[in-house]
Amino acid sequence: MTPTAAGTRPVELGRSIRAAREKRGLSLRELARRVNVSPSFVSQIELGKANPSVGTLYSILSELGTTLDDLIGAQSVGSPPELVDAPSDTWAPVAEPVQPAVGRKRLEMSGVVWEQLTHDRDPYVDFLHVEYAPGSSSCAPDQLMRHGGREYGYLLSGWLDIQVGFETYSLGSGDSIHFDSMTPHRLSNPYEEPCTAVWFVLARRDDDRPSGLE
Questions:
Q1: What is the CATH number of domain 9-80+99-202?
Q2: Three-state SS string across 53-105, please?
Q3: What letter does residue 175 receive in the DSSP assignment?
Q4: How many CA atoms lie within 13 A of 84 on its CB side?
Q5: SS3 assignment for 117-134
Q6: What is the reported pLDDT for 76?
Q7: pLDDT tens, 17-39?
Q8: Under 8 Å between Cβ of 192 and 151
Q9: Where do the HTH cro/C1-type domain residues begin and end (predicted)?
Q10: Rounded CA separation 65/86 (Å)
Q11: In angstroms, how far is the first alpha carbon of the chain from the final one?
């Protein structure tokens, strides 16, 4: 992968999703059925010709029994990811504690960009720099997300509306939020300027409560 102008490395998400899907023996049509999208859309994602929403991506991760970090955390140039489960009774070693600004893995979705802030694969937390373009959202208004874990966000710039259950909170620069990710939620930027934030999703994989995702 070639670094972008900002020094980040775009992630070949589609190829990683396809590898994980095939490893788990799921057909393209079956994965599409489970996440409630068309087979052609899943095909376009796997070919790198379409970007999923955040909500669709989390649904895909849930159905594949994997995490964002499993797909992109250990991805290296020119090689597919190795999906390895860390032992539940041990802490994974940290080989590279520093992730320089140059070289961060960058994942582009539909109006939303995630950049990974850990260099090593981390099975315990998704630690991300996120960007929401004007008019973008994590999911459709009638398809709120639910998944395991707990989320923590800190806004660096711009504004972001966050619906958690029946409440909607408008956050500006310097504001922060945390909530149970099992509560239906949606992030959106209905404003005229981009929003940037630092985001954590803690213990998404280890949360064994049923998510309710179909």
A1: 2.60.120.10
A2: CHHHHHHHHHHHCCCHHHHHCCCECCECCCCCCCCCCCCCCCCCCCCCCCCCE
A3: -
A4: 11
A5: CCCCCCCCEEEEEEEECC
A6: 42
A7: 999 999 999 999 999 999 999 99
A8: no
A9: 17-71
A10: 14
A11: 34
- pTM over 0.85, yes/no: no
Question: How many whole angstroms separate alpha carbon 45 and alpha carbon 84?
Answer: 23
Point out the least confidently predicted range of 64-68, 104-108, 120-124, 207-211.
207-211
For residue 168, count other CB atoms closer than 10 A to its CB: 12
Alpha carbon 144 to chain centroid, angstroms: 15
- C-alpha dihedral, 51 to 181 to 64 to 98, nearest 10°: 70
- Confidence (pLDDT) at 196: 98
Cβ atoms 24, 65 nearer than 8 A: yes
Beta bridge partners of 154: 176, 198
- Residue 145, number of CB atoms within 10 A of its CB: 22
C-alpha to C-alpha distance for 29 and 36, rounded to whole angstroms? 10
Beta pairing class for 125-132 and 195-202: antiparallel
